Amino acid sequence: MKSAVDQLLATPKRALPEIVFEAPELEPSSSPSPSVRLGQPAPRSREGAQPSRSRLSELRILDLLVPASLLLLSFVAACAAFPATIAPYLPTDMQTDSILSQPGVGHWFGTDQFGRDVFSLVVYGARQSVLIGVFSVLISCSIGVSLGLTAGYAGGWLDTALMRFIDIWMAIPNILLAIALSTVLGPSLVNTIFAISITTIPRYARILRGQALSVRSRPFIEASRAAGASHFAILRRHVLPHCSAQIMVLATLGVGTSILIGSGLSFLGLGVNDERPDWGYLLTQGRGYLTVAWWTVTFPGLAITSLVVSVNLLGDSLRRRFDPRNAPR
Amino acid sequence: MLRRIVERFLVSLGVIFGAVTLIFLVLNWLPGDAATLIAGEDASPDTVHHLRVKLGTDRPLSDQYRSYLTGVIHGDLGTSYVTREPVVRRLAAQLPSTLMLTFSACSVAIVLGVLLGVLSVLYRGRWLDQGIQALSLFVHSMPSFWLGMLMILLFSVRLGWLPVIGNGGLLPLVLPVATWGIWRSVPLQRMVRDGMLDGLHEPYVTTLRAKGLGERRIFYVHVLRNAVTSTITLLGVLVGESLSNAVIIETLFARQGIGRTTVEAIGQKDVPVVQGAILISSVAYVLVNLLVDLSYTLIDPRTRLATSKGTR
What we know:
The structure holds 2 protein chains of 2 kinds.
Chain A: H1 2-10, H2 17-26, H3 34-39, H4 51-57, H5 60-81, H6 83-86, H7 118-154, H8 156-171, H9 174-185, H10 189-216, H11 219-226, H12 231-242, H13 244-267, H14 279-287, H15 295-322
Helix pairs in contact in A: 5-7, 5-15, 7-8, 7-10, 7-13, 7-15, 8-10, 9-10, 10-13, 11-12, 13-14, 13-15, 14-15
Chain B: H1 2-29, H2 34-39, H3 45-55, H4 61-73, H5 87-122, H6 127-140, H7 144-158, H8 171-199, H9 203-210, H10 215-230, H11 232-240, H12 242-252, H13 258-267, H14 271-299, H15 301-305
C-alpha cells in the first residue's frame, strides 16, 4: 500500500487518470488513509457500482419509520410520567365480573385473570422500563466510557490490566451476573438498575478503548501534549469529544439492551412486583393463561418490543448519520 | 506458533481464575446473608446462627475463598445449601439436556443467519432485503421469551402442531430450538451481510475478476467464505451467552436443564449451585474463545504476522 502511494506521487499525472477521477467521488470526506481508498476497485458498470449510494438506499423502509418511532417514544414517555391521566383504570382495579374478557370497546387490550384492564397495566408498567433503560445506561455508559478511554489512551500496563479485568467480567454471562447481583441485593428498582448497569459496562469499555487507541496517535493529541495540557484535560477536551458520536449511538442502542435484560429479570421473577407490575412480570403472569387468553401476553410483549424497536431504529439512524461511509456527497 | 498457543492458554486460565474470584465476591461479599435469607425474616438469631455454622458462612471470607478455590481445583464445587447434594452431581445430571438444546439452537441460528445474510446481499436494496432487515430489527428488539410465547400461541394453541412443554423425545425440542435459533440468527445475518458487502469491494475481488473468474464463483466461493469465516468470532459470543439464554428458554418451556436449575437455586437462595452454574458457563466461554482465537491463526495467515504487535 505504501508503495502505491509512492507510485502515485512519483508518476506523472497523466499516467493515472482513472484513479484521480474516481477517488474523490468514492470518498468525498477527508479519508484518514488515502492508500486504502486507492486500493479499492474503480466503480464498474455492473455489480458494485456506487457502493456508498446503494448502502444509503438500502434501509429506506426503516428510515420512514424513524418519525413513527419518535412519536411512540414520546407516548411511552408520557405514559411513564402521567400514567393516571392516560390509563382508563387503576392497575389495582379488579373487576370481578369481567375476568379474562376479550379485547373490545370497554377494554382495548382485554382483561387479565384478576379482571384488571390490560391496557392500564401496560400504561402503568411503562415507568419501570423507561427508568431502567435510561438510568442503567447513564451509569454503565459513563463508567464504561471512562474505563475504555483511560485504557486506550494510557496504553501500557494500565491498558492490559483494565482489559484483562474486562475480559473476566465478560466471561460471566450477563443475565446470570444480573440475576446473581439482584438475588444478593434483593428485589428493588434501584438494585435492578444497578445490576443491569454492572453487566453492561464491558461493552462500552471495549469499544471506547478501540476508539481512544485510534485517536491517541493523532497529531492534535501530540500538539496539545506539547502545549502542556495534562492527560486528564486531553482526555476530557479532545479524546472524549472525538468519540461523542460513537458514544451517543452506543448509549441509544444500550437503552434497548438494558430494557430487554430488565424485562428478562422480571420474567424470572426478580423484578419489583408491587401493585404496578412491569411488562416483564405481566408476561410471566400471562404465561399461565396463554392457551385461553392470548391478549394477556401479546400486548405487554408488544409494548416492550415496540419500545425497543423505536430505540434501536433511532440508534441505527444515528449510526448511519455519523458513519463516514455514508457522508452526504 | 506454539508459543502463542501456550501464551493464550495461560491468559485464559487467568481469566477463568479471575471469573471464579469475581463470582465468589459477588455472591459472598456483597450485602445479603444466605443464612438469613434461607431462615426467613421471622427466624430467631439463634436459628440463623446455627444455619450459618452449618453452611460454613460463619467463617472469615478469606477462609471460605481458600476452601472454595481448593475445591474448584479438585473439581468440587461445594454442596447445595438446600438438597445437601454435591453441586457437580446436580449440574452434571442436567447438562445433557441443556447441551442438546444449546447445540441444536446454535446450529439453527448459524444456518438461518448465513442463509438470510446471503439472501439479503443477493437482493440488496430490493424488497426481500428490506423485509429481512425489518424483520431482523423486530426480532432483535424482542425479548426471547415473548418470541417463544408467540410461537406457542401460533404452533401449539392455534394450529395444535407441537406440544408446549415436555422433556422426552424430539418433538418438544422443536419450539425451544426454533425460538432460540431464530432469535440468535439476527446478529449472524447482519454480520454476514455487512461482511459480504464490504468484501465485494476488497482488492482481492478485483484480482479475481482480473483473473477472469465468473461473478458467481467469486460471490459464492470467495466472498461468502470470507464472510462466513469472520462469523466464527460470534461463535464465542453465542456460547458465552448460552447459559443466559438457557435460563430464559428452559423456564419458558418448562424444560429440565442447567438454566432452570439455576433459576430454582436462585429462588431457594442456594448460592453454591448458582456459583457452580456460572462457573461452568464462564469456563465454556473462555475455552470457546480460546479455540476461536487459535482457529483464526490457522484460517487467516495475516493474524499470525500480527502476533508480535499484540493485536487480537
